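Review form for a predicted model. The reviewer records the input and the model, then writes brief findings.
Reviewer: anonymous (R2)
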Amino acid sequence: MLLFKKKFLPAIRAAEKTQTIRLWPFCRMRPGQRSYIPGAGYIRILSVDAIELDHLVDADARPDGFPTADALRAELQSLYGAQLAAGQRAYRIRFELLDSAGQAAAVAERRQRKRRERDPAASRAAGPGPTAGEPASMRRQSRSKSKKP
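Model under review:
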């Protein structure tokens, strides 16, 4: 999950803000990963790069929603002053907001995972899913018929 200040959410929803810079002791995300932004929705991580804040130029700041690199650095200083002082590494995370079909698929997958976590015995008892083209009900019937009395 990536948390953002409320002031950034409209730009994320409008696909105007497509990156964020985070300071972490180690990298916490990877390309291809799906994450969630409360108030915006699910995103796909496109790239994660370790960067030097002093080397940022204005073109680096625009996808982050800032007009200049100096404005971006000032915001980072206000948000991450303690992390900067501690020498944590800066990472640029580029992302895209999933479309409505992607949002729906992510929600469905999350609900399914939550159900499995709540009742792991039920998901084990059900066994693996049906094979391609075979409804689960038919597979269960054929399994029960093959058992000896």
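Findings: The domain at 6-101 is CATH 2.30.130.30 (Archaeosine Trna-guanine Transglycosylase; Chain: A, domain 4).
Further findings: The longest strand covers residues 41-51.
Recommendation: see findings above.
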